Amino acid sequence: MVVTPLSTLMSTSTSFASHLRRAQGETVKIQAEVASGRLYDVGKTLGYGTEALVSFRQEIEIGRRSIDVNKQVAARLDASQAALDAIVTNANGFMSALMSARGDPRTAGIVSEQAESAFKAFTDAANTSFAGSFVFSGIETALAPFEDYFSTPPPASRNAVAAAFSTEFGFSSADPAVSNISVSSMQAFMDNTFASLFDDANWNSTWSAASSQPISSMVSGSREVTTSVSAASQAFRSLTAAFVLVADSGTKNLNDATFVALIDQAVESLGKGIALMTELQGTLGTAQQQVQAAIETTSVRSDLLEEYVGRTEGVDLSELSVRLNSLLNQLEATYAVTGRLQNLSLLNAL
Amino acid sequence: MSLGSAWSVGLSGLSTASDQMALVSRNVARAGDVSATRKVGEQVTTATGSVRLAVVGRVANPLLLEGLLSSRSNYAGESVTAAALDRLHLAVLDPKLDQSPAAFIAALDGSLRLLANDPTSQAAASELLGSAHSVAKSLNDATAIISAVRSDADRAIADSVTALNVTLRELEGVNREIVTAPAHADMTDQLDKRDALLKLVADHVGIRVVPRGANDISVYTDSGVTLFETVARKVTFNSSGVLGPGVTGHVVTIDGLDVTGPDALMPLRSGSIVAQIDVRDNIAPTFQTQMDELARGLIEAFSDPDRSGGGKPNLPGLFTWTGATVPPSGSAIAGLAARITVNSQIDPGRGGSLSYLRDGGSSAPGDPDYNANISGASGFSGRLFELVGNLSEERKFDSASGLRSRSSILDFSSESVGWIDARRQSSTNRLELRTIIRDRADQSLLSVTGVNLDQEMADLLRFEQSFQASSRLIATIDQMIETILEVAR
Amino acid sequence: MSIYGTMRTSISGMSAQADRLSTIGDNVANVSTNGYKRVSTEFSTLVLQAAGTSYESGSVETNIRRHVVDQGTFNYSKSVTDLAINGQGFFVVEGANAELLLTRAGAFTPNEEGELVNAAGAKLLGYDVANWGGGVVVNGAAGLEPVRLSRRALTAIPSDEGTLLANLPADATTIAAANLPSANAASSSFSSRTSLVSYDTLGREVTLDFYFAKTAPDTWEVAVYDRAAAAASGSFPYSGPALSTNTLTFSDGRLTGAPSSISVPVPGGSSAVIDISEMTQFAGDFKVISGSVNGAAAVPVSKFELSRDGVLTAVYENGSRIPVFQIPLARVNSPDNLTAVSGNTFLPSLTSGDVQIGLASDAGFGSVISGALEQSTVDIASEMTAMIEAQRNYTANSRVFQTGADLAEVAVNLRG
Hints:
The complex is a heterotrimer.
Chain A: H1 14-36, H2 42-46, H3 49-103, H4 108-126, E1 129-130, E2 133-134, H5 156-169, H6 183-196, H7 200-207, E3 216-220, E4 223-226, H8 234-248, H9 256-313, H10 317-343
Antiparallel strand pairs in A: 1-2, 3-4
Helix pairs in contact in A: 1-10, 3-4, 3-9, 4-8, 6-9, 8-9
Chain B: H1 2-29, E1 39-45, E2 51-58, H2 62-89, H3 101-117, H4 122-180, H5 188-204, E3 207-211, E4 217-221, E5 226-229, E6 231-232, E7 235-236, E8 253-254, E9 257-258, H6 272-301, E10 319-320, H7 336-339, E11 341-342, H8 355-359, H9 382-392, E12 395-396, E13 406-407, H10 409-449, H11 453-488
Antiparallel strand pairs in B: 1-2, 3-4, 4-5, 5-6, 7-8, 8-9, 10-11, 12-13
Chain C: H1 2-29, E1 39-46, E2 59-66, E3 74-76, E4 82-86, E5 90-94, E6 100-103, E7 106-107, E8 109-110, E9 116-117, E10 123-128, E11 145-146, E12 155-157, E13 161-167, E14 192-199, E15 205-216, E16 219-226, E17 244-251, E18 254-256, E19 261-265, E20 271-275, E21 287-293, E22 296-299, E23 301-306, E24 311-316, E25 321-326, E26 329-331, E27 339-341, E28 345-347, E29 356-358, E30 367-370, E31 372-374, H2 380-412
Parallel strand pairs in C: 13-20
Antiparallel strand pairs in C: 1-2, 3-31, 4-7, 4-30, 5-6, 5-10, 5-26, 6-28, 8-9, 10-11, 10-25, 12-22, 13-21, 14-15, 15-16, 16-17, 17-18, 19-20, 23-24, 24-25, 26-29, 27-28
Helix pairs in contact in C: 1-2
């Protein structure tokens, strides 16, 4: 007379209790997932896939930073480009002044003053700074490319010019004896002594603190791109030579023929400078394009990665609510059955 | 003679019925006890026709018990592993929180790029310094977590061993009681107690129970080492206190034999002790090696080479450690992750200068051989670009870390997260499986040997009827004798 | 004469019924006496010579018969020393005057000397196993002495035999000769190891370490060491040599050839012969299937047990069992003719036959049940009916006597 082997403990026993516990834990998990939209425990669910996830998150972070940096670079390039525009415009204006002065030697004083103001404008533009760094100094971003030529006391560059002039002619450029300088000696002066003032060694030591090494930026990945032009380049030198020649060589007192020769030389130097400046603008334009392209590429990639990350870590809300419903139903059914089982006892019938 | 023998048979029936009811009440009283088995009384009829309760037995199933014991050992071991892995995971946390060393290294890369864009920016330099501090701190914190896990595992082993010794001594006592009992004595309660003690032992180590004569047992571990045979064997273990990286803990011995560790010839296979040893000596140290290798990789990547080509050794740059040298490539140094710090020569808060970030040479101030910024330009970005490249450059890692031996720092750090999460996932799955198996085994044993109140009630009815019938019989016999005595008067 | 004869006859009839009544009285009085055997009366006629025409009434002779052969029902108790015999036989007890008595009443309890005495003070006799050679003296009390329970000295039992049945892993690696356990070097290693607890002469526990090492395919070495001599690490090198070293060869996984048992001299004890004939060597793990060594520490006796063939065994606190007394049974050819003596005992008489002593397991003897008492064979109902019958018969006899007396009176009063 053996009844079915079901121990009384079983209905409230370990396995029942642990089933209930598991189901309840599952419910809590699902509710948390619904509230946050993400998996409850990303690492446990993905296992080894977490490596890729973390790697992508690293890329997203680095990409975000790259974009920020590149935007800064683009802004700097814009400022540089605007400064170069100003320089070119200024130089062109001076060029026309020179052309008109060439025909009328009596305007020597005026053109000299024009040269001075044009030179000042040029220097201001060349000393453009962006976010606390000088854009035309190359990697010596803390130093301004040019000092004020016309300051008192005069800077080394002006002294060098004055010294070269006195050595060549025996008197300073302010001396009225300037009018006796012949065309050939002036030409010789301009071609040799004056020209040598603007060679590499002298330019760096007396004229400009700018480094000849331009700024480079990490545009995308680990590729470096040059994103500045330096005031040490020939364009700036030629322009400077033109300005200084006209402004500081005793132009007022020159005789007509020498004056014309001077103007001719200045025009040649200016023209060369403008042409080279245009080239520099081209270089900057290329850099701007590269930076912009990099920003777009990185944005697109980061967006893709973010979408992948969101998909991988996220949960499907509709599927979750279905699961939650069925789980709750199951729990209720379990409670009901347990309750009924408890009532099924012979004790009640005795 | 007939009436007298009928009388004594009736009496015997009465006493047997009441003995059976006593058994029923014992069963009912222990219906809620998990380790209680159903007691059954065997009635025998003697030669003279009377009946008595010969033996009190219990319903037991040694095979199911064996299954339950092994499932308990497996479950105990796996739950230890799963808990330890979850604790180790605190070093990396959910990817979204960006609190893992991997996330901090990515932020470091970003800060490098920011500073490279404008090396004169003090704000960017401070941010880079802050990022470096975060990286070093995350590695230090990870080491602290790992050391805590190892120390706790060591302490847990000591507690386990103490509890095991106590349980084995109790087992010895109960077994002796059972063995010395006379042949038909009721030892069912002691047998139940012994089974309950075996379940406790199985939680610590996997065991095999071998029956011997006269209800005696001997207990061996799953690897064959004697745990209990006539006398309980000693389980010994020396706790090590706080376990730092690179410090190995002691082994567990049973019956004078090493049962854990590389020299064990009969190593344990299941149970919580083995799992704790695995956490302490295998899982946690491997994770520690990964952190140490990350630290070493960072020190190596940020180190300054001799730029003059003169062959001088590399010196630590932004990241340094108490040893103040650049460790050789590809071999881990235990505990390096706890000792990595930001170079004080760079930290203005400790008397250093941020310009070393741009120029390099922080460990050899004034030595031109290590200076990367030859021109001294304030906007020099070459060194910073070099460092960005180093973070993504492939380098050699010690294979003891369990990860790829050729990888970049960024990839190594993310692979480490994948490693711990993969283990967590598989451990969780295994734990669920083992929980189900253990519950199943528990259920099976209970269903066969446990007390069913309904059955007990039904039996109670039966014995009650039998008691009533016997008492009726005795009353009738009494009446018959009364009748005769009446006649005799 | 015949009247007086009648009167005498009825008187004898009355006294016969009175005898009967006394036996009934005795029976009823002893209805709860354990081991009591019912007494009944058998009447036989005493016939006087009778001539053809007159009749001389005789008288009735009473024979008392004790139904010793009947077995009563058993009453169970928890006491080990309550004995009953199921079947033929008697317990041999010693009376107050050291005479040999037989009884079925087995309610023995230890007295102050530990001797088992029953309610009447008779001591149970048995053979002391320590002194007994095993032979039973069939017709005498030689060798019997009172069974004593207490004052058993502490006895330690040194181990002298055991078994070890284990499976050695067939895939174990071979161990170099220099590192074998028998070499007892610090570098000694082994394939598997187990331990067994044995006892020396003083009852001390001696743990024996059994080391198994594979020397060659299908060849193993087994070396046994004393745990107490182990090094501080719990293993090699031991401070004493191996207690025993043997080589085992296996074929197809089973042990072949010698030895089938190894003799291990237990330090401080005797040589324990460990039976290893069923050792196996199959692929798989090292598993001990059964391992045990006999022996016991010096522990006091915890209880006694009596088996069905009358062996009184002392159970020590560690479970070992040692027989201490053999309780014999006695029988006679005609148990009903035994002389009853007070105290539920019987004395052999001329008519009962000689006492034959034997063991409970022998043929013709019953078995000893421990924890049971044989109840009285008296049935109240039949005694009551017999009593009524006896009373009626007595009354009838007295009537006859009365009638005879009246007739005699008539005869006497005839004169005149």
